[in-house]
Design a protein that fits this description.
Keywords: Coiled coil. By secondary structure, this protein is of the alpha+beta class. It is built from 12 helices and 6 strands. Helices cover 55% and strands 13% of the residues. Strand 3 and strand 4 form a beta hairpin. Helix 9 crosses helix 12 and helix 11 crosses helix 12.
């Protein structure tokens, strides 16, 4: 690599192959042949470069005569100049030699910068300000979006905080109701009989869950189930309704039997005779069941 290529190895160059009337964008270090020694590195001043100067350029393994029109470190910007040259919106002689701020690696004073800007054609002067404006508009849009999102996040945080507070209140009420329920449950459990039994008639207590399982389709079935709940099948099999003389079958307890009969009469609006007949039928069935065992 030549001294020139080493010094400007990161630069791109806009090349005009004038014989073919074609434009190309290459890296400076790639388009210079390795044996270029006609220039000294320190004399290779890009800013004072003459675009009409002819150089032999390496392209596709061969040397072609060409002009270096422009140097720069931004490939996209030089590409945009090629597009303008292609659609003939600018001429070759209007292309500025330098399109980057630090190619010469030497500071410029304000007079030189102003002179270069004034020497550019009007359409090239508008190229960069438009991009900067567009970029600024994008930045402004991004800032506005960020500001809106930040505001929305703050609003959501406040809403989340309020939801958490409401959740804590509901949780507190739930815990209070749960404690009250447990207290009532313990109280009912301590009362025992009142919670597990139900009263029928004047004084007979029966288990609530068994009482609720009795059949209600007719008087005889309801009496049969209720007698099982109050007395049990063993007592029914060994007892009679009023007792039999000389027999070993005692009568059913009078108070409980009267409570069963009065409850059934009231529940089904039935007469005493119907209920008494249902009691006899149940006792007969209990006796027969015991006899067959």
């Amino acid at each position: 690599m030549s001294l020139i290529a080493k010094k400007f190895k990161n630069l791109y160059v806009l090349i005009h192959f004038y014989q073919e009337n074609r434009f190309s964008l290459l890296k400076l270090c790639e388009c210079l042949p390795s044996d270029v020694n006609e220039f000294k590195s320190e004399d290779y001043e890009i800013e004072n470069w003459n675009p009409k100067r002819t150089l032999e350029v390496m392209w596709d393994g061969a040397l072609y005569p060409a002009h270096f029109l422009q140097f720069g470190d931004d490939k996209k910007k030089i590409d945009s100049v090629i597009d303008k040259l292609g659609d003939k919106s600018i001429k070759v002689e209007d292309v500025p030699v330098v399109q980057c701020s630090d190619v010469s690696r030497q500071p410029k004073n304000d007079v030189e910068i102003s002179h270069q800007l004034n020497s550019l054609p009007e359409n090239l002067q508008e190229l960069h300000p438009k991009e900067e404006k567009k970029s600024c508009d994008k930045c402004k849009l991004v800032d506005d979006c960020r500001r809106i999102l930040k505001k929305k996040c703050k609003s959501l945080e406040e809403e989340n905080y309020m939801i958490k507070e409401e959740h804590m209140k509901i949780r507190s009420k739930y815990n209070a109701l749960k404690a009250k329920y447990k207290s009532l449950k313990r109280k009912n459990k301590s009362e025992g009989i009142e919670s597990d039994f139900i009263k029928i008639g004047n004084s007979t207590l029966v288990e609530k869950h068994k009482f609720n399982m009795r059949r209600l389709s007719c008087v005889s079935k309801s009496v049969s189930d209720l007698l099982d709940v109050v007395f049990g099948r063993e007592i029914l099999a060994n007892s009679s309704m009023k007792g039999i003389r000389g027999a070993s079958k005692p009568p059913l307890p009078e108070n409980e039997l009267n409570d069963v009969m009065s409850f059934t009469c009231e529940k089904f609006s039935a007469d005493v005779g119907t209920v008494r007949a249902a009691v006899r039928q149940k006792l007969n069935v209990a006796h027969k069941s015991r006899a067959t065992q």
